[in-house]
Amino acid sequence: MKQESAQELKAQFNVGICGMGTVGGGTFTLLQSNQAEITRRLGRALKVTHVASRRQNPLYDTNDVRFSTDVFAVVDDPEVDVVVEVLGGTEPALSLILRAIENGKHVVTANKALIAIHGNEIFAAAKRKGVTVAYESAVAGGIPIIKALREGLAANSIQWLAGIINGTGNFILTEMAEKGRNFAEVLAEAQALGYAEADPTFDVEGIDAAHKLTILAANAFGIALQFDKVYTEGISKITSDDVSYAEELGYRIKHLGITRMTEKGIELRVHPTLISDQRLIANVNGVMNAVVVKGDSVGSTLYYGAGAGAKATASSVVADLIDIVRSAGDESKGTPGNVPSLAFDSLRSDIPILKIEDIECEFYLRLSVYDKIGVMAQISQLLTDYGINIEALIQKEPDTTLGSDVFVPIVILTGKVEERQMNKAIAAIEDLEQVVEKVTRIRIEQFDGEDS
Questions:
Q1: Is the pTM of this model over 0.90?
Q2: What fold is seen in the domain 360-447?
Q3: Are β-strands 266-276 and 231-232 bridged in parallel, bridged antiparallel, or unpaired?
Q4: Strand blocks (E) in 203-342
Q5: Is 219 in contact with 154 (CB distance < 8 Å)?
Q6: H helices then E strands: how many in the chain?
Q7: Which residues are catalytic?
């Protein structure tokens, strides 16, 4: 590596990248290709001086950069001012970040699972050492949603937010809606296209979205990161019939992360959701992400864009790097910015996270019943007994595909009711002899009537 003079080193900010996969390589490429523009923004150079990976990636020209196979060599390099961690997983990422902080280095990470689960520990360590840990790229790829919550909407008391924050799940539901395909078929295609992993559990069962929602909620409401309290439900049980019936009723099914401040506490949940097809977020398709935020002053705002990919995620990583340099003063190392890690200078610990049973929703119910007189009357009476109003109902043509017995699919949309009460009603309905299968239940969100 070329040895810069002391004056040159002072005039630039040195970046070390740990991991040269999709995001690390994208970050390296973006810093190289946009170097002149970035220097013009900052008034000094932002330069990669050290990268580490298990092996050199031939896609990236790192000949003029120090290369290591040991990622800890980057955080121990005295010339590196800020470390970019894009390894993924818990270890060695957690140890790496904590060591970088201990060495007095700023950190930029795209590791949403690490922040969601260990972020409280990481941010406390960073505060003690007076360095910044930035993580815009950990949520929704290239969409600057963390900056919007921490800075752009800082004057607002956030009431709720809802997001399509996993592109794989959104691609699957879009294909099911637009082409009438079943879940398993579309999942296989998503895996073939590289949108879903060989083990797709994190994406289709909502775990990835729950990591991101944990981070969004902390920034929206000024609470500690509490991933273990997120209610998580996947999309693997959604059928093409559900998608079709929802559309017939004027809704689309999206896999949403939702958090809302209520008088009882904070809702923190990821699950399939029916949304009116008139809402903007209902029309976000394919692998795209979108987040709607409702503030008390500004109303509803929508943030839309690519939620993954080398270029989109690298855009957020480099934006974090630029923010760190801008806040660092005249020397290559300095004080971090004045914006706290989780948007609030002090976090509230007096607000409970609500259990799913305590949340009120409208519901979509799909039942399969024997084609006999009086069945619908029994179901209606049970719902009435549990204080549940029927807002809409579809009774389809009898299904004769299961042998000599004739079945009728029924779809019901209910009024708003506490989930605990709905659980009791569903249990009672399933106990009826005429009900053939378990009741399918999908929550409905109207978003307070806002144009979201």
A1: yes
A2: Alpha-Beta Plaits (3.30.70)
A3: parallel
A4: 231-232, 251-261, 266-276, 288-295, 299-306
A5: no
A6: 15, 17
A7: 212
